[in-house]
Design brief:
The complex is a heterodimer.
Chain A lengths: L2 H12 L4 E6 L5 E4 L10 H13 L3 E3 L6 E6 L4 E5 L3 H12 L3 E5 L8 H4 L4 E2 L3 H8 L5 E5 L4 H12 L5 E4 L3 H13 L4 H4 L2 E2 L11 H17 L10
Parallel strand pairs in A: 5-6, 5-8, 6-7, 8-9, 9-10
Antiparallel strand pairs in A: 1-2, 1-4, 3-4
Helix pairs in contact in A: 3-9
Chain B lengths: L2 H15 L11 E6 L6 E9 L2 E10 L2 H13 L5 H17 L24 H19 L1
Classes of the chains: A alpha/beta, B alpha+beta.
């Protein structure tokens, strides 16, 4: 691999940009393809294969002239933004870490967002939309709101709906969800936007305890990540 | 219309007015305070001329009560001293805790917050901008 390709790859990984390293198995020539870029200068079939590999998060070989090409996927990490340093968040944040994802718990209420409650889980006592403006949300991001306070949850959901986040979940009963949808409609979001919100949040597995609710949320999140077409939209 | 509904309308109107929302170019003092229980956060900036408040601006991230209180504060505190604002905070506390009507004058609109008196957990939302102003004035005086 040429040095400039390696250096660009390193910059892309640091910038959390999805990139596919395409190696010609005959010549060992390597190039970078941006699966979600504009595709300029990339043969359409190769772009499509790179995009599919990135979406599946699976490196693979594709047939081509000679020995073919190897597509190695470098996806940015899956990041889960948990809004609300509440009891369920304590369980969910740890489970998210065990699943191998990055997590950040956000709650402007300092009495909730404390190190004593969350140990070494990354935590910040800021407003969620300010955090989003700082860290950004991409197609590998998930947002789950749990404060039950519209003043804190709604700006987080609005920021999530304006992004490509693959999962948006909102804790709350059906009644709460309807009131929330109404507020977000008034804020200019369409029914198609609102259909991205999973609420009541989590897979219906009969969860009762906070740990069980966290399992149901994480399961739904994984399904949206790994089987995006199989997971029904909220409200569907 | 009940008195409560009227006052609540007054709170909404104050919040919408958002008097003084924004920043000052060259503040003499500023302070940011937050309420750790509900997340409300207020920044108040002041410019003084002698002991009088010449300019005042605020930024609120919080509930409508906090926004309304900051808006009223920016209108009523202008031209007065830090001591006047402290006195107004005392009137507000008395209103919230015992229902005593605020004195006539620059601060009489504090009466809009009377319905908050029966909800002690929200007193902090109304008082926060006043506390931030007190701190900002103290810093401006150095």
């Amino acid at each position: 691999m040429r040095r400039e390709v390696l250096e660009q790859l390193r910059r892309d990984v640091e910038a959390k940009r999805a990139v596919v390293l395409v190696t010609d198995l005959d010549t060992a020539e390597a190039r970078l393809v941006y699966p979600f870029g504009d595709g300029a200068g990339v043969p359409p079939a190769l772009l499509a294969a790179a995009r599919e590999a990135a979406e599946r998060d699976q490196s693979r070989k594709v047939e081509g002239a000679g020995a073919g090409l190897f597509l190695r996927v470098f996806n940015p990490p899956v990041r889960v933004l948990i809004v609300g340093a509440v009891h369920i968040a304590q369980s969910l944040a740890r489970m998210v870490q065990l699943a191998g994802y990055d997590v950040l718990v956000v709650d402007p209420r300092r009495s909730f967002a404390t190190g004593e409650r969350f140990g070494d889980v990354p935590l910040t006592a800021e407003w969620p939309d300010e955090v989003v403006a700082r860290v950004g949300l991409d197609r590998r991001s998930a947002v789950v709101t749990m404060t039950h306070d519209p003043k804190i949850d709604d700006p987080a959901l609005a920021a999530a709906l304006r992004s490509e986040a693959f999962y948006v979940g909102a804790l709350g009963s059906k009644k709460t969800q309807e009131a929330r949808r109404e507020r977000l409609r008034k804020a200019g979001f369409s029914d198609a936007d609102l259909s991205r919100i999973h609420g009541p949040v989590g897979l219906p597995i009969g969860s009762v305890s906070t740990g069980e609710i966290a399992v149901s949320i994480l399961s739904q999140l994984v399904e949206c990540l790994r089987r995006p077409r199989a997971s029904p939209r909220a409200g569907a | 219309m009940t008195a409560d509904a009227l006052y609540q309308e007054a709170i909404v109107r104050l919040a919408r007015e958002a008097r003084g929302a924004g920043r000052l170019e060259a503040p003499d003092g500023s302070a940011t305070l937050d309420n750790p229980l509900c997340g409300d956060r207020v920044t108040v900036e002041v410019r003084l001329r002698g002991s009088r408040i010449e300019a005042l601006a605020h930024q609120v991230r919080g509930c409508i009560l906090c926004e309304a209180a900051a808006s009223l504060l920016c209108r009523a505190a202008m031209g007065g001293t830090g001591g006047d604002a402290r006195e107004a905070r005392r009137s507000l506390t008395e209103l919230l805790c015992s229902g005593a009507r605020p004195p006539a004058g620059a601060w009489e609109d504090l009466a809009a917050f009377a319905p908050v008196g029966s909800v002690p957990s929200r007193h902090g939302c109304v008082l926060l901008p006043f506390d931030a102003l007190g701190e900002a004035v103290a810093r401006a005086k150095g």
